[in-house]
Write a structure and sequence with these properties.
- The chain has helices at 47-58, 60-65, 78-84, 100-105, 152-165; strands at residues 15-17, 23-25, 35-40, 68-73, 94-95, 110-111, 123-124, 127-131, 137-142.
- By secondary structure, the protein is an alpha/beta fold.
- The chain has one domain: Glutaredoxin (3-Layer(aba) Sandwich).
- The strands form 3 sheets. The protein has a 5-stranded mixed beta sheet with strand order 5-4-3-8-9.
- The protein is globular, with a radius of gyration of 15 Å.
Length: 175
């Protein structure tokens, strides 16, 4: 079994920078919603990330109705996040400064920029962690490329099914 985070494990604290450049633990709930969805995105340089974050913002009410709080983070600097906010219509917290150590601890796929026009630092490829009321990883989706992401409507439907049917955490069988 891999040493990275697995389904049913507790999500570790992830201290990053909020949009005001203050330290914040992204895993701490900001609302009374019992579940949390943490989106790891590649950064300002990624148009697919901008598209995904804006689409998620349009669905925020549906996720709230399902009991899920939203947050997103990248390895971008605070300055890059501030610049990216100009292209975003998000209505949920965005964070920056996810470190290489944190990316590795989360078991994320990490890429080097293709050139200086893309970005100036290694970055995590897309991932989503759905954390339940016990702070366990209920659902995890990690990709090694920007083109492979779960459909947000399908993900929302799955979360609702899990919550309404007391569906167990899947993928926990070990040898």
């Amino acid at each position: 079994m891999s040493n990275d985070l697995q389904p049913a494990m507790k999500i570790p604290a992830l201290v990053v920078k909020d949009s005001d450049n203050k330290q914040a633990d992204i895993t701490v709930r900001q609302t009374d919603l019992s579940w949390k969805m943490i989106v790891i995105y590649r950064g300002k340089h990624c148009p697919l990330c901008t598209k995904q974050l804006n689409a998620l913002a349009k669905m925020k009410g549906q996720f709230i109705d399902a009991g899920v709080e939203l947050a997103a983070v990248s390895g971008d600097s605070h300055e890059q996040l501030t610049e990216h906010l100009k292209d975003l219509e998000v209505n949920f917290p965005l964070y920056s400064s996810l470190s290489l150590v944190q990316m590795t601890d989360l078991g994320l796929y990490i890429s080097e920029p293709r050139n200086e026009n893309e970005t100036d630092h290694p970055f995590a490829e897309p991932a989503i962690f759905i954390v339940n009321e016990q702070d366990q990883i209920q659902i995890v989706d990690k990709s090694n490329a920007p083109f492979s992401r779960p459909d947000l409507n399908d993900l929302l439907s799955g979360i609702k099914f899990i919550r309404e049917n007391d569906y167990p955490i899947r993928g926990t069988l070990t040898e």
